[in-house]
C-alpha cells in the first residue's frame, strides 16, 4: 500500500519584535518624555498666559483692516522685491556651491576618478569632503546672518551669503545622494570604452540625474524665499524686517499687510514652481526614501516640446540673477576690505579658544535636551496634522473623478470638494509662508516663554511644508488598489485606512524624519525670540558679546545636529527595509 499523505508546512507567524517595532517603541517613549518636558500632561506646569489674551484679540481683529495706504503698500512692494532678490541670489549661489560640493562628496565621483586599488585614499577623500560640508549646514542661516552682521555690518551681502553658505552645503548633500542613487551602467560603459572620467561623468550620469537635480532646485528656491523672510528679523531688510518692525511697535494693521504680502509672494512662487515642474514632467518637489527599483516617484520623462511658458520661465530665471544683483546694489569688494579683515580677526580672536567650565557644560546638556524635546514635539504635531490636511489638499481625492469620488457618482456636492481643496491649500500656504519666529512671537501673547510656544511655532511652520509635500505624494499615488476597493463599495474612511495610508505612510514618515533634521536647526531661531532652548542662550551670548560662549554653544549645537541626523538616517533606513 502506497502512503499518499504529504507533509504540509505551515509558515511561522512573523515575530512581532523586529527593528521597526523596536524603533517605533523607542520613538514613542522619547516623544512622551519630550511632551512631558514641554509641559503637556505635567502637573503644575504654567503654560497659558491669560494676561495676553486682550492683545491677541486686538491682533486678530486687525486682520480685517490691514493698512492699505498707498505709501505703505509701495513700501511693502519694495520690501517684497528685496526678499525675492535675496532668494534668487541665495539660490543661484547655493546651487553653484552645491553642484561642486555634491560632485566632490558623492561616492560615485571618487570611484570614477580613482578606480582600482585606491579604495583607502578614495574613502578618506570622500569622508573629508562630507565632513567639511557637515559644519556649515548644521548652523541655521539666521546664525550665519548674525555672525556675518558682526563682520560686514548692515550690508545686503549678509542676506545673500547667510542663505548661500548653509543651503550650499545642504544642496551638496542632497545632490550627492541623487548622484549616488542614479543607475551607473551608462557611466561604466563610457569608462570601459576609454572615455576620460570627467567626460564620462558629464555624459553618462548627469543627464539621468538632471531631472531630480532640477526638481530639488525648485524646492530649494522656495526654501530660500522663506529663509530670506526670516533674515529680515536681524535687520537684513525685506518683508521679514518690515513685519518685525510692525510687531515691535504693535502696529497690527501694518503687520497684517506684511503677512498678506508674504503670503501672496509665497503663493505666486509656489504656483510658478508647480507649473514649471508639471510642464517639465517632475512629479514632486522632494523625492526621498526611494527604494531600489521604485520608479513611481521619479520624475516622468517627457519628449522635448516647444513650450512658450517654459522658455519664458527660463529666460526670466536667468535674467532675475543680474536684476537682483542690481536691485540690492551688491559690492563684492567689501569681502576683502581692510575693515572686514580687521573685524573678522577680532571676532576670531575673542572667540577662540573656547574654554567651557563644568557648570556651563551641565547647563548646555540641559538646554540640549530642551532643544531636542522642542523639535520632537514640533515635528510630531506638524506630521500628524500634515497627514490629515494632505488628504483634502490633494487634487485627486475629493474632486469629481477622484479617489473618494469616482466617475459615475452623483456630483451635486462638487462645490464642497472644491471649497475644501482651496481652503486646505490656503491653510498650508499661510502656515508655511509666515516664518517660525513670527509664529513664536504671536504665540507668546497667550503662552508663557518656554519649550511649548517654540514647539508650536515650529509645528505651525513645518505643518504647511509637510502638508504640501504629502499632498504631492497623495497625488502621485498608484490608484489601482484604491479603485478596486471603491468598486467593491468600501466606505471612504476604509479606503483611506486600507488603500491610501498603507501605500504612503512610509514616505510620509520619511518626510517627517527629514524635516525633523531641519526642525532642530530651526529651534535656534525661535529661541532667539524667547522660546527657550539653546537659541535663547545664544541670544544672550550674542547680546553680551560673549563670542567664546557663542562658539561653545554652536559647537554643541553642531554635535546635536549630527546626532539627530544620524538617528533620522537610521530610522529612514529601517523604513526602507
UniProtKB/TrEMBL annotation:
Compartment(s) of residence: Cell membrane
Occurrences of domain ABC transmembrane type-1 (ranges): 80-273, 368-568
InterPro entries: MetI-like (IPR000515), MetI-like_sf (IPR035906)
Topology in membrane: Multi-pass membrane protein
Regions annotated as coiled coil: none
Keywords, ordered alphabetically: Cell membrane, Membrane, Transmembrane, Transmembrane helix, Transport
A UniProt-annotated Pfam family: BPD_transp_1
Transmembrane intervals: 84-109, 187-206, 227-247, 259-276, 367-394, 415-434, 440-461, 547-567
Record family assignment: Belongs to the binding-protein-dependent transport system permease family.
This protein's name: ABC transporter permease subunit
